[in-house]
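tmp note - GDSL esterase/lipase
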Amino acid sequence: MDSTPNFLSSLFRFFLFSLFLAHLQQHVVEGSRVSPIGLGPKMLFVFGDSYADTGNNRKALASSWKLPYGITFPGKPAGRFSDGRVLTDYIAGYLRIKTPIPYRWRKELSGRVKYGMNFAYGGTGVFDTLVAEPNMSSQIDFLQQLLNDSVYSKRALKTSVALVSLAGNDYSNYLATNASVAGFPAFIGSVVNQVKVNLKRIHNSGVRKIAVTALQPLGCLPRSTVLFAFEQCNGTENALVDLHNQLLVEAVKDLNKETNSSSFFVLDVYNAFWSVFNQKEAGQGSVSPTFENPFKPCCVGVSAAFSCASVDENGVKKYTLCSNPKSKFFWDTVHPTQEGWRAVYSTPVLQNSLKLFW
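out:
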């Protein structure tokens, strides 16, 4: 029997599979090699939300898989809530390892699990939010399952580090579902207490160093500054952020004391954001001289009813887009642009925080 047709069929299937893997690889952005640290960690594990998500959200639901997201890098939507790279990519670059693959692609890109894994889902929080995606506790459960399945070993995790991103979704959810503003400080305490539990779980899994991001100045996000014509921040919101960050620092100190280690530290995103904002205000511009107004986003819905990536039933855009994303710190009403993240990453305050990684 002639085996040529079977051979050609197998070759064709292999060709299609190769194209599929190549397509997935485009979604897995390499971290930039920007700050060598010598012999460092071999794996990075990421937990949290859209500030760190590199493609876990479901395509049918997330704006991160729709235009104009991803137009700067990789040139099309790739699951990141930005026009390009996000915090995870820059952290991976600093550690001189490849950006870890999103958890949802772990089977298709099994060869990349050796660099770690990204469990972060955009829109999620420490507790459940209005987004139907895994909260942080569930994300840690995913890591535990991979340990149970022998994808990783506790011994292997001794040469790994973790990034835990907190961008405030718990607080947005609280305001959307709870009318008791007076209870906000107590809720902040409960969020930080749960963060402490989560950090200890990650440490118990075997991860050597764990960085948790301080909360960025929420009152300076465009969704808040729009009320002030994008000219100033909401001081009330930032006062609540200060409380969160104070409690977070205390929690990290407690964890290091309890474990008799220096395994936990805060990645000072809060002051890194302010460094960028204040440089513009002071006219120094050494980090990035191109941010004309750091509080005004590049992509925004044409009205309050629409957001970046919104289209009507005929596919007509319901958003406006700036001519040059590099000139803007914020991409949409919540997330920085790639250039914004690069500026944050490049600040001395964040570089000093990163030195604690290894």
